[in-house]
Design goal:
globular, alpha+beta, 3 helices, six-stranded antiparallel beta sheet, 227 residues, 18% helix
């Protein structure tokens, strides 16, 4: 009887403690609704495009070599391919997600696809990805996830990474900095963005379940002794 009760408690604890599917904390991470739920520092040089756009189909320093198959956002270019009439632009271009909240300390799993291309000058442009506090204005790079230097060569990879954060309110930040003086001309494409609370590899038995099992075991032992 005791073994049956303990097995039942353990099974219940596993169900209660098992992690569910990872929910994306980023709204509109696929940019299917344009820039809704995102905050852009430029109304012209940050824009959403589809896979057939010239900046995606262009090759060499003109585009992303067909890197994207769906909607994506471009930082640092107004229209057309990278080196056409849509640029060059210079300065800092920042795209911030809507605020997401962690009720308790957690490890986040961050995913996105990014591609960088353009023409280098005597000063390198750079692209940064960070998680920042919701109240940082202007943004301060509080947790730098990734930094790329853009030297004119094509670069594109999915990014998957983890970061441990305390409870609080946060945003995901993408930043492209193009050097002043028209010495360079680059652009960044970003798509398939997600931030989720990472899976737990081992789920510990919840404390209430341990207490319940202990109490039941004690009760059964007393009954046996009394009998």
């Amino acid at each position: 009887m005791l073994r049956r009760i303990m097995a039942l408690v353990m099974a219940t604890a596993c169900v209660l403690g098992a992690p569910g599917a990872l929910a994306n904390l980023i709204q509109n991470g696929d940019f299917s609704d344009g820039l809704q739920h995102w905050h852009a520092s430029s109304a012209s040089a940050i824009n959403v495009r589809d896979a057939d756009d010239a900046i995606n189909t262009g090759t060499g320093p003109y585009g992303f070599d067909g890197f994207f198959s769906g909607d994506f956002v471009v930082l640092g270019d107004r229209r057309g391919d990278v080196l056409a009439h849509g640029g060059p632009d210079e300065g800092s271009f920042e795209l911030r997600s809507s605020v997401f909240t962690l009720e308790q300390p957690a490890r986040l799993q961050v995913n996105f696809r990014a591609v960088l291309d353009g023409r280098a000058g005597d000063r390198a442009d750079y692209f940064q990805v960070a998680i920042i506090g919701a109240d940082h204005c202007p943004p301060l790079l509080s947790t730098l996830l990734k930094e790329f230097l853009i030297d004119g060569g094509w670069s594109g990879d999915p990014y998957v990474g983890g970061v441990d954060l305390a409870a609080g309110d946060y945003r995901l930040l993408f930043r492209l900095y193009e050097a002043h003086g028209h010495r360079s001309n680059s652009a960044v494409g970003i798509g398939e963005v997600s931030v989720a609370i990472g899976p737990v590899s081992e789920v510990p038995l919840p404390a209430p379940a341990i207490l319940l099992a202990s109490a039941l075991a004690s009760l059964l032992t007393r009954r046996r002794r009394a009998a």
